[in-house]
Design brief:
Largest sheet: 7 strands, mixed
Number of strands: 22
Mean pLDDT: 93
Distance between the termini: 37 Å
CATH topology of the largest domain: pyruvate-formate lyase- activating enzyme
Oligomer: single chain
CATH superfamily of the largest domain: tm_1862 like domain
Bound molecules: S-adenosyl-L-homocysteine, FE3-S4 cluster
Low-confidence stretches: 1-10
CATH architecture of the largest domain: Alpha-Beta Horseshoe
Radius of gyration: 22 Å
Helix content: 25-40%
Number of helices: 16
Strand content: 15-25%
Length: 481
């Protein structure tokens, strides 16, 4: 259970190719969702032009930036703990400056400076281009805060600095913000209104990545299916766009096609899909283009219609099943994963059983499961009492985690004896003699290294499995190399 939950919350620092003329050292680490990791690459790029190279040694940093997550209380507590560590280091290195980025910065604003004396700088997710100015202020001895949310900012013109350790897969952000207002969720408050990025700048970034040898990209957004480019601006203003803008707008299905055609040898993934916005067109594109991976992350949050409504998820259990059926009809071997929450206000045993029966219907490949955590300022916090005791939330969570493990095992077992294509990403954690990569369905596969290399597509035969991993033997290169 812990493993599943921790996966999204683990801190990770970046290593980038240093510029020799840069003299200052930046330590930047990220917590939370993939978007934060992607944003940190944008920040590293902006600061690289300001004379900063990244370092992995906290002790030698001139500037420490932590990109934070507010999604659950636990995520915020993790960051507070990290600040204590920075505090200890600052005693040895008093010149070190500390900045907080991301969702906690946006949520707490200047209150952060009062609550945590170690913090010099507070910058929200739409204000990273202001970092050079803000850092100058900090250097002159003043604290600096910019948490203004933007109607347009997509950082489309910043080419992110990439993690060099893998060099195989990269994130490409396509939308920012979220307009959905799920009642439990803090994201619409911390990341603002939904905006889409110019498809031309997305394609340019994808082409650049291909040139640098990357083999897989993941298009990122809080709700990718809602992607809509009509010349810039907020999604909610699309109605006011000119007839010309409307006629030439690019939606998510079209973007998928553009990206898949721009780099037919590159694997294309996307995350996250919201059931209420996912269209048949997008699924048809997945079917049509072999390089679009057969994998959909489709959070459902609950299997109970009553809970879905209370969460302001704008679909029913039945509609979700229809969507699953349509996906399976067009892409029978599609990997489907989920997010689920237990113990949302007023959740009964019956609601919980609805979640269990929904899981049994779909038999997800894997999922991220959470106990409900009330977030200040959200609709749920304002309107509903957080009335499910922690033990009940945890017991229900343990039940769905155990069920998911059974389903994951069922899914991996289906592959035994079959041949699948794997893109090699890194050495297996368990054995240096084995490679680790993923299948199109996003399932991890390991196999003996032989003479294969990171970044190659290999056909492998599945001989055994755990609930999370396919254990395989390599057969040969796939046609995709
Ligand atoms: N669309 C987003 C969802 C962001 S939050 C994405 O790109 O992934 C990720 C998951 O965290 C949600 O799907 C939900 O299952 C969980 N979550 C969000 N708010 C939560 C809360 N207040 N308590 C518990 N889990 C929460
Ligand atoms: Fe949050 Fe719902 Fe958007 S979970 S990120 S408000 S789709």
């Amino acid at each position: 259970m812990e493993k599943i939950i921790d996966e999204k919350q683990q801190g990770n620092s970046l290593v980038i190719e240093p510029k020799t003329e840069n003299k200052r050292k930046l330590f930047i680490e990220s917590y939370g969702c993939q978007m934060n990791f992607s944003d940190s690459e944008i920040v590293a790029s902006i600061l690289s032009k300001e004379g900063y190279n990244t370092t992995q040694k906290l002790e030698e940093a001139d500037l420490v930036l932590v990109n934070t997550c507010s999604i659950r209380e636990k995520a915020e507590l993790t960051v507070r703990k990290r600040l204590e560590k920075y505090n200890a280091v600052k005693r040895i290195n008093p010149k070190m400056k500390v900045g907080v980025l991301g969702c906690m910065a946006e949520r707490l604003k200047s209150k952060f400076l009062e609550e945590e004396k170690i913090v010099d700088l507070v910058v929200g997710p739409d204000a990273y281009k202001d970092l050079p100015n803000l850092i100058s202020e900090v250097e002159e001895g003043r604290n600096a805060v910019n948490v203004i949310l933007s109607k347009e900012e997509t950082y489309g013109d910043v080419s992110p600095v990439r993690l060099q350790s893998n060099g195989v897969s990269a994130f490409v952000s396509i939308t920012r913000g979220c307009d959905n207002m799920c009642t439990f969720c803090v994201v619409p408050f911390t990341r603002g209104r939904e905006r889409s990025r110019d498809p031309q700048s997305i394609i340019k970034e994808v082409n650049d990545l291909a040139e640098k040898g990357f083999k897989e990209i993941t298009l990122l957004g809080q709700n990718v299916d809602s992607y809509l480019w009509y010349g810039g601006g907020m999604k909610k203003d699309f109605e006011k766009a000119s007839p010309m803008q409307k006629a030439t707008a690019t939606d998510f299905a079209t973007l998928l096609k553009l990206v898949a055609e721009a780099q037919p040898k590159m694997r294309v993934r996307f995350s996250t899909s919201n059931p209420q916005d996912m269209t048949l067109d997008a699924i048809e594109m997945m079917e049509k283009y072999p390089n679009i991976c057969n994998s959909i992350h489709l959070p459902v949050q609950s299997g109970s219609d009553r809970m879905l409504q209370k969460m302001n998820r704008l679909h029913t259990r039945e509609e979700y099943f229809n969507l699953i059926d349509n996906i399976r009809k067009l892409i029978p071997d599609c990997g489907i994963s989920h997010d689920l929450i237990t113990g949302f206000p007023t959740e009964t045993e019956e609601d919980h059983q609805d979640t269990i029966s929904l899981m049994k219907y779909v038999k997800y490949h894997f999922g991220f499961m959470f106990a409900y955590s009330e977030r200040p300022g959200t609709m749920a916090a304002r309107k509903f009492e957080d009335d499910i005791p922690a033990e009940i939330k945890q017991r229900r969570l343990a039940e769905i985690v155990a069920l998911q493990r059974e389903h994951s095992q069922y899914r991996t077992q289906q592959y035994i004896g079959k041949t699948v294509e794997v893109l090699i990403e890194k050495s297996s954690k368990k054995s240096d003699a084995h490679w680790s990569g993923r299948t199109s369905q996003n399932t991890v596969a390991v196999f003996p290294k032989e003479n294969y290399k990171v970044g190659e597509f290999v056909n492998v035969k599945v001989k055994d499995c755990t609930s999370a991993t396919l254990i395989c033997d390599p057969i040969g290169y796939s046609d995709n190399n």
